[in-house]
Amino acid sequence: MSRFSTILKAKAKLAAVRVAVTVIPAPRPIVLLGEGAALNLCNTVSHIGVKRVLIVTDAILVKLGVVEPVLNKLAALGIETVVFSGVTPDPTITVVNEGLAMLRMGHCDAVLAVGGGSSIDAAKVIALSATNNKTPRELIGILKGRKPSLPLFVIPTTAGTGSEVTIGAVVSDDQTHQKGLVIDPRVVPLATAIDPVVMQGMPKAVTADTGIDALTHALESWMSEIATDDTDYFASAAVRMVLTHLPVAFNDGKNLDARVAMGLAAHYGGMALNKAGLGYVHAIAHQLGAHYGVPHGRSNAIVLPYILEFNRDACSERLAELARKVGIATPDTSDRIAADQLITQVKQLLKDVNINTRIPDMNPADFPAMVVSAFAEAHGTYAVARYMDPKDVTNILHEIARG
Ligand SMILES: [Fe+2]
């Protein structure tokens, strides 16, 4: 397919995305913010009249003791709990089905996710599936639910995905590992607790990787062709907060101010991407995850500088506007220089938080298929600022392979 027809096709799909974005609402959860918010959220669960809640989490968080205070608080409020701790990174449909079976066996009337993006996404699909008489697989797509979810609550333990506010959830096919996206405003929780206490034990590498995921959501939303004043508002706040607070949270995990600021930055990034979408960073990063198992945030961190460089000319005005808005550039700096300053600052942040950019065993034989998948994702769903050629992406993959 020629470059011209590729772009034409992508633009036609984009027109449909624009309509969908306008029509599909993006409800927002009530946010409880700050130290103790996780336990306060249990009060909200109680106020709603929940009798028995399914806790969706992973085995590591249970072992680390992160879940226990929540269970104790719920018990003190007279709420029974059933714990599903089988969530794995990039949860598969089988994992989600296991959680759904526990919910049904336990006769739970609500779902509470305690975890990172994987647990939150699994909980979203479990809660939607439970009320809609549809399997998780049948919910993949846009607006496949017909009824509201079971009451859903979320305690994020990482500051990255912003999944507690997004209208999407990702589940993977067990065999192909292809990601299926459930897009439905019904998966937005009733309430979420952004609590630095549950984030303070997050390891350094996870803090860095997930924090850069939040930054990438904000930057890709900002660079999107369908960005609005609303999405810019949240995206620029998220960028400013990540640049300021991620190095602090990385160097001192117990700094609760930095932790809560990062939690909020991730939340704002999620609000921005709900309406403005993502871009090539995610489209290419997903391939690094699928082929080489690179964690989501880290693969974004690896790809991000290349896409910023690629966009330097295409949207230097926009990048400059952002640089001025977040205080990196002064009002009288030229667009070109201001955009450069922003890109330099992002690259410095990646160094400051020690992003591991090495991906062992990258195989150039994989690259053609990775390019096709990246384009299928980017050109079908994202409003990118400037279209790439297959050779552009291939070159980036070779550069990443060289480390
Ligand atoms: Fe992401």
From the structure above, extract its key features:
403 residues; alpha/beta; Rossmann fold; Dehydroquinate synthase-like, alpha domain; 2 domains; 16 helices; 58% helix; globular; binds fe (ii) ion
Task: Describe the 3D structure.
Strand 7 (168-172) and strand 8 (179-183) form a beta hairpin. This protein has 16 helices and nine strands. The chain has two domains: 26-199, Rossmann fold (3-Layer(aba) Sandwich), CATH 3.40.50; 202-402, Dehydroquinate synthase-like - alpha domain (Dehydroquinate synthase-like, alpha domain), CATH 1.20.1090. The longest helix is centred in the middle third of the chain and has 23 residues, at 229-251. Helices cover 58% and strands 10% of the residues. A six-stranded parallel sheet has the order 1-9-6-4-2-3, with helices on both faces. A three-stranded mixed sheet has the order 5-8-7. It is an alpha/beta fold and 403 residues long. The structure holds fe (ii) ion (FE2). Fe (ii) ion is lined by residues 161, 213, 217, 282, 296, 300.
Secondary-structure blueprint:
Elements: H1 3-23, E1 30-33, H2 37-47, E2 52-56, H3 59-64, H4 68-76, E3 80-84, H5 93-105, E4 110-115, H6 117-132, E5 141-142, E6 152-156, E7 168-172, E8 179-183, E9 191-194, H7 196-199, H8 204-223, H9 229-251, H10 256-276, H11 280-292, H12 296-314, H13 316-325, H14 335-352, H15 367-381, H16 390-402
Parallel strand pairs: 1-9, 2-3, 2-4, 4-6, 5-8, 6-9
Antiparallel strand pairs: 7-8
The site of fe (ii) ion has 6 residues, from helix 8 and helix 12.
